[in-house]
Design brief:
Immunoglobulin-like, 4-stranded antiparallel sheet, 2 helices, 10 strands
Length: about 130
Amino acid sequence: MRTASIMAFLVLASIISGCGPGVPTPVPVHGKVTLDGKPLAEGQIAFVTPGQVPEFIDIRDGSYDGKAKWGSRKVEIAAYRPYQIPADIPKSMHGLMEGGKENYLPDRYHSKTTLSAEILASGPNEFNFELSSK
């Protein structure tokens, strides 16, 4: 009886582990990001799969190097600067707004991105992005 239970467990475990496509594992990705022809000083690049947590990699001096899961990904790029308080905001409100940051890149690179990358399970996975502030 005990042997039958063990055999049933082993068969079930092998069926479960062998079914369906493999879960993508993170692989190395790297590249360069420029803004108006110059390296993006600082920012973040995100490789996005709908319904999953994005994979963020820091951009420094126009370069990024990290890991992301392979497959077709939407790409979002953001760069931040201290929030500029509009001139028409009363001085009494400035204390509530100081210290914040804003993404200064156009929406077409983040919230309305059309950028994408096909990350290969094995391959060079180098993705360069030339952005324009105009």
